[in-house]
């Protein structure tokens, strides 16, 4: 059996911390170590931790930050402070299913080529009531995308947006030297997203469809699992200001440019990865710089269409952005 650490970050977590700690204690496969990094709590967080320490037979290592690091940097510190061969990332306000550790450890033991695994989660509200959907449903990690992930498409999927949440992730300790420190590429790419993207380059991250976490959405969480946002309808595309559309596209271009630039300057990156990032950058550069004259838009749009870039990079109902590019 591999040694197991839990990396738990806290910040004024008294509302839900006790429930989360109890769910760790009640795992069918016990953990060997709980490492907590507190980011400057002023509530009863420490009191709750001290009471928990007295109720369990595995060590609890508490680090307190002299200054507030923020959620992502605090997790980076906490993960690196763990000694276990497998490290579970843990939020202070969720609940773990009793077999979470058992199933994710079993996955990693059965798949030595994977260095991380994440799972599905049930979305719950502040009171702990089900919101009637899973995290995979909320982020639209559909069966089609899951199959494509298994076929080697993980890096491409992650390039389009947020899929992996750290609250459901377990990683191998050995990757820490490779993934940390988290580079400052784009603001949204924080610790869990970066770990997933880095490992996806070599298909070293897998997933379980099992719901192993109850993921709590509430008004005081520092970061949250966000859906893809409001659907942009055809009516929206033809009534919104063109500047609104171009602002969104320019953000996608700037992000894809930053990712391409970063990876292109790393050593030993597969040419296919660089090519994929360049395609995405070029596609959004084209879309963000389309002229006001609709006739002059036709050639670059058709070129991207015939190369399959709309389907590949815009996904889903790709024909909607294509129509918007032609007519808005």
List keywords for this structure.
alpha/beta; 14 helices; elongated; 2 domains; 9 strands; Spore Coat Polysaccharide Biosynthesis Protein SpsA, Chain A; 328 residues
Walk me through what this model shows.
With 328 residues, this protein is an alpha/beta fold. It has 2 domains: 4-216, Spore Coat Polysaccharide Biosynthesis Protein SpsA, Chain A (Alpha-Beta Complex); 234-327, no CATH class. Helices cover 46% and strands 16% of the residues. The protein contains 14 helices and 9 strands. Strands 1, 2, 3, 4, 5, 6, 7, 8 and 9 form a 9-stranded mixed β-sheet that branches. Helix 1 links the parallel strand 1 and strand 2. Helix 6 (143-160) packs across helix 8. The longest helix has 23 residues, at 242-264. The protein is elongated, with a radius of gyration of 21 Å. It starts with a strand and ends with a helix. 37% of the residues are buried. The model has no long low-confidence stretch (mean pLDDT 92).
Q: How would you summarize what this structure contains?
A:
Helix content is 46%, strand content 16%. With 328 residues, it is an alpha/beta fold.
The amount of beta strand, in percent, is: 15-25%
The general outline is elongated
In CATH terms, what is the fold-level topology of the largest domain?
Spore Coat Polysaccharide Biosynthesis Protein SpsA, Chain A
CATH class term of the largest domain = Alpha Beta
Q: Give the number of helices.
A: 14
